[in-house]
Known about the structure:
Layout: H1 6-25, H2 27-38, H3 47-66, H4 69-92, H5 96-119, H6 123-143, H7 149-155, H8 163-182, H9 186-208
InterPro entries: SWEET, SWEET_rpt
Pfam family, one: MtN3_slv
Main location: membrane
Amino acid sequence: MLLLTNEQIKNLLATSATFTTVLQFLTGVLICRNYFKKKSTGESSALPFISGLLSCSLWLRYGFLKSEQVIIFVNIIGVFLFACYCLTYCLFTINKKRFLHQILLIMTMITFTIIYSKIEPNDIQASKLVGLICCSVGVFFFASPLIKLRHVILTKNTDCLPFPIILANFFVTLQWYVYGWLIDDNFIQIPNFLGCILSSIQLTLFVIYPSKSDVRYKPLNSIDF
Length: 225
């Protein structure tokens, strides 16, 4: 029987987690494709793109501080994709002023984080603070869908929940949690563990409250985050 070493398991998991995370990032292409077709963003929110850009930018900085090549690689792709999604949203939204204010807010946060991490003489302290910020943003990002739980419970219907995205979140966060455990990094473990738990709760709702419509979930391009 072939037994893999911890290093081999870590490398396999890093490859798998990177692949599934990039696939998850690419779901934004479907949403932007719909914007191009309709020449409008409709009532959709920019929050997924803005929070994605913020999260990937912060994790990218954390990856550089920790010299974690896997974290660096996946978040370079994430920053590029979410920047493209934000640009697309800006082109087609009628509320450009509000959107640009939101972009300015996250860019300010990213800039201050980078400046602090550069001027802080203690690299360990810098990585801890940046990791804490990444962790906080990650928890907020994963917890945001919980605002719909009350509606699901009251209506006993899961039509408002995007099943494919929730399922993808479950597998992605599970892989990153295990990866964080293997490299003994609490800042990677904590938000992904919570994300995995929250995704599990949402998946359980599909069993308790099955969809009442013929369509089991909303299309990606009509999801209201």
